[in-house]
Amino acid sequence: MGGANGKEEVNGMEEAQVFEGVSRRNFIKGVVAGGTTVYAAGYLFRQNGVTLAQAAAPGTVERLITLRVNGQDRPVDVMPQETLAMTLRYKLGLTGPKLGCDRAECGACTVLLDGVNHYSCSIFTHQVRGREVTTIEGLAAADGTLHPVQQAVLDETGFQCAFCAPGFIMSMVVMVRENPNPTRAEAAQALSGNLCRCGDYNKILNSAMRAAEYSRRA
Ligand code: FES
Ligand code: FES
Question: First-to-last CA distance in the chain?
């Protein structure tokens, strides 16, 4: 919004009064450019306990939101109809979730929402506010120790090109939690929402069975 003297106004205050020298336009650029910049900037713009990024005008959708991803709060600029896959890959730099079909068929984009596997290409980012998002980047321990499912896939060299691997691995994580001792048929059923274009299902199932074995030991 343009102020009377050419300065922008935010909530009726001149930009200069609110931001103390930090332009709103530059702040928005920072959101698009990288989450870490914005993470710090969020503290600067707090006013009466609400960040200006969270204060959407009536009738509009808040674009500057904070997502909980892999145990971290990640401020990000999100368009109203942006999918979670797009936000994760192109705004937050988390390229583990792949975009294959982009229409809920292949499972390459699978992530966990509150521990449940979902296609991130088929849910709007605004719908996951307040939920815990986990991508494959968040599976390993802080010291780099792989999740038992990741270790099992590595030991079985379970994929050919591995484009589908992150999605399968996220579904395996749920499988071993819900059924720690699956039959091969049960593993196939649990992973039926994921497709492998290389047709490497035999090795993928070997990985799934080993993943269950490692998870029982963990
Ligand atoms: S990219 Fe999401 S299901 Fe295929
Ligand atoms: S290993 Fe290539 S798509 Fe699955």
Answer: 56
Q: Ligand 2 mean position to 184 CA, how many Å?
A: 19
State the ligand closest to the CA atom of 200.
2
User: From CA 28, how far away is CA 33, in angstroms rounded?
Assistant: 9
Residue 145 tokens, joined:
């120790």
| Residues with pLDDT less than 50, the chain | 1-54
Whether ligand 2 lies within 6 angstroms of the CB of 168 is answered as no
Q: Is 144 helix (H, G, I), strand (E, B) or coil?
A: coil
Q: Are 194 and 107 in contact (CB under 8 A)?
A: yes
CA distance 152 to 214: 7
Measured from the Cα of 198, ligand 2's closest atom is: 2
Residue nearest to atom 3 of ligand 1 (CA): 104
Judge whether 146 and 138 are in contact, CB under 8 Å: no
pTM: 0.75
Q: What is the pLDDT of residues 174-209, one digit of tens each?
A: 999 999 999 999 999 999 999 999 999 999 999 999
Residues for the chain: how many in total? 218
Plot region of 48 (φ>0 → left; ψ -120 to 50 → alpha; else → beta): left
Q: How many CB atoms lie within 10 A of CB 168?
A: 30
